[in-house]
Amino acid sequence: MMRWCLLWALFSLAVWAEIPAIQLQLYTEHMPPYSYLEQDKVDGINVALLRQLCERTQVKCQFELLPWPRAFEQAQQQPMSGVFSTSRNEAREALFQWVGPLASDWGYLFRLRGRAEVNPADLEEAKAFRLAVARGDVYESYFKERGFQYGINMLDFATKSEPVPLFLAKRIDLLVGSRRSVRSWLQKHGADEDSAEAWLKLEDVGDNYLALHPNTPASLVQRLQQELDRMQQEGVVLQLIQHYTQQQ
C-alpha cells in the first residue's frame, strides 16, 4: 500500500512539474521614486510592491523599463503582460484589466521657488507659461483637453523627470508631478528638495494601477487583487513608501 502511495505521490509531482508556471511580463517607465534603474536593476516603490505581490501569489514576473508610450503599447498587444504605474481613468478603463491601487500621490503644477513672476491663478492663466509634460502620459492628454498646445505653451519630453535641469535653469516655468515624485527628481539632480513649490493642485486623473492585458485570466487578476488588498491592510505599501523616500 505504501509503495502505491509513494508511486502516486511521485506521479503527481511529475505532472505538477509539467504545468508551466504563470508568467507575467511587466513594463514600467523611468518615474522615481516609483520606478527607475538602479545598477541595471529595475527598482522603486511600485516595483518592490509588485515583486512582493508576485512572490506571494507564486507568479513569475519579469520587469522591464521602457519609454512610456512603448510600455503602454506593449501591455495592450502582448498577452500575459502589464504596465504600471498607470492612471486608471474612463478613457483607459476598457483597454486593460486592473489591479490596484498601487502607491500614488496627488498631482500639482510646480514652479521654481522664488520665481514670483510665475504665478498663474488657474490653468487658464497657466497657458501664459512654458509647461513640461511626458509624451504619452495621462497629463499630456489632460492639458491638451484644456487648451494647451505644443509649440505655444507645452513642451514634450521622454520622461516626467527629464525636464528638471531646464526647470532649475528657468528655461521651463511649470513642472507636472506629485510632491513625492518632484522631491525625488530634485534630489537626483543635486538640488534641494524644497527648490520647487506646489503651485496649482490638479484635478484627479486616477490612482496608479497595474494595467494587465485584456486577455489575462480573470482568476489571476482576482488572485492578484485579493493579495494586494491584504498587503494594503498589512501596511506594506506605507512601509515601502517610507523606505524608498528615506533612502534617497
Automatic annotation (TrEMBL):
Q: InterPro entries from the xrefs? A: Solute-binding_3/MltF_N
Residue ranges constituting the Solute-binding protein family 3/N-terminal domain according to the UniProt record: 23-248
Its recorded name reads Transporter substrate-binding domain-containing protein
Taxonomy of origin reads: Bacteria, Pseudomonadati, Pseudomonadota, Gammaproteobacteria, Alkalimonas
